[in-house]
Design the sequence.
């Protein structure tokens, strides 16, 4: 075992478990969240950086605040940056702990996806401009080797065009493998009931709005970030941006956002159950246990399955 993974849908308390496990085992956190990489997007992404201080000591973390808001970070970049950080942690004899809820990012590094940096294709983009999302979806699915890694490939025309651009590049170039580390993971999932998850999501959304999420997003726009770029990130940044620019009133924003987060959490669980069907063993931890009990369970299983000592 050379990587611990702590995953689960939103609002299950993954970060609190991961940081405390890392603190006790001499580990460092690798974020597995596709939006926490952006600077200034703190409340909406739930970075909860206070969780990275355990018993007065800072738990080192990686892949958080590494790109400016508005930037179009992608899966290739994540795998590249993960590999660099992972090798650095291992070289220092520490335990890498991957924590997050973005199933695509997590499975990409666990499965050693062979990804390349795909340049923009202006001519292809011009040909695709003006086509409907349904037309773009048909074109994308026409590539015989295309396998949709994420339903967000089809969520809007910009994402669909980029997905076609990538599929076309792979179809028309001789792709050579890239160097990825051999990952032998021990995977934990934090699980709570659907009803409790819904309660936590509702309460957390209210708390984030009270903490100033609207002001955070208004500040990003005032600093020069294009509202369309924030909408692109989805969930909180989509609906709160639409409220800030006057497309939704506050009640509409809150209602639609809450529905969207509930749907997102359901898709996350669907992805993780799919990982199990694809051969990944996930040790599920009861998310209703006291935090210390959850931490102790993870460490007990870790010690039973892996006797090697990391750092500390």
Sequence:
């Amino acid at each position: 075992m050379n990587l611990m993974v702590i995953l689960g849908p939103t609002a299950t308390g993954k970060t609190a478990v991961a940081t405390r496990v890392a603190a006790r085992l001499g580990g460092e956190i690798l974020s597995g969240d596709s939006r926490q990489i952006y600077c200034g997007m703190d409340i909406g992404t739930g970075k909860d950086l206070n969780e990275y201080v355990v018993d007065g000591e800072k738990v080192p973390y990686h892949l958080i605040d590494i790109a400016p808001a508005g930037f179009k970070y992608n899966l290739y970049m994540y795998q590249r940056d993960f590999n660099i950080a992972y090798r650095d942690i291992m070289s220092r004899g520490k335990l890498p702990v991957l924590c997050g809820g973005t199933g695509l990012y997590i499975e990409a590094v666990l499965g050693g996806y062979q990804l390349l940096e795909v340049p923009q294709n202006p001519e292809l983009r011009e040909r695709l401009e003006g086509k409907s999302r349904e037309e773009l979806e048909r074109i994308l699915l026409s590539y015989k080797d295309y396998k949709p890694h994420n339903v967000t490939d089809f969520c809007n025309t910009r994402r669909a065009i980029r997905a076609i651009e990538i599929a076309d590049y792979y179809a028309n170039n001789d792709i050579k493998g890239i160097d990825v580390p051999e990952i032998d993971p021990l995977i934990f999932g934090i699980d709570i009931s659907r009803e409790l998850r819904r309660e936590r999501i509702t309460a957390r959304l209210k708390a984030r709005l009270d903490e100033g999420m609207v002001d955070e997003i208004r500040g990003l726009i005032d600093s020069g970030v294009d509202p369309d770029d924030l909408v692109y990130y989805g969930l909180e940044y989509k609906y709160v941006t639409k409220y800030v620019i006057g497309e939704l009133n506050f009640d509409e924003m809150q209602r639609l956002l809450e529905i969207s987060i509930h749907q997102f959490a359901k898709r996350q669980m669907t992805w993780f159950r799919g990982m199990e069907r694809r051969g990944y063993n996930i040790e599920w931890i009861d998310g209703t246990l006291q935090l210390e009990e959850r931490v102790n369970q993870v460490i007990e299983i870790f010690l039973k399955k892996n006797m090697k000592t990391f750092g500390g």
Q: What stands out?
A: The CA atoms of residues 42 and 159 lie 24 Å apart. The chain has a mean pLDDT of 92. The first helix runs from residue 14 to 25. Strands lie at 3-7, 27-31, 38-39, 53-54, 57-58, 61-62, 67-68, 95-100, 185-191, 282-286.
